[in-house]
Amino acid sequence: xxxxxxxxxxxxxxALGDRWxxxxxxxxxxxxLSLQTRGSVIEIGRVDPERAVxxxxxxxxxxxxxxxIPTR
Length: 72
Hints:
The chain is mainly alpha-helical.
């Protein structure tokens, strides 16, 4: 089950700005994951890309290896 509440986009493509971000949002709404992402926030991340790698790796460790489910 996929339950996405917030998607933070990072990386070089984010330099494309608001038009790109709106296109990403529209594709998410009409794509294969439209029901799962309805009500989600898709935004340009405010995280240093190097730190984001560590955050992503930590999330993988918590969920896949330790079986924990992060909550808000």
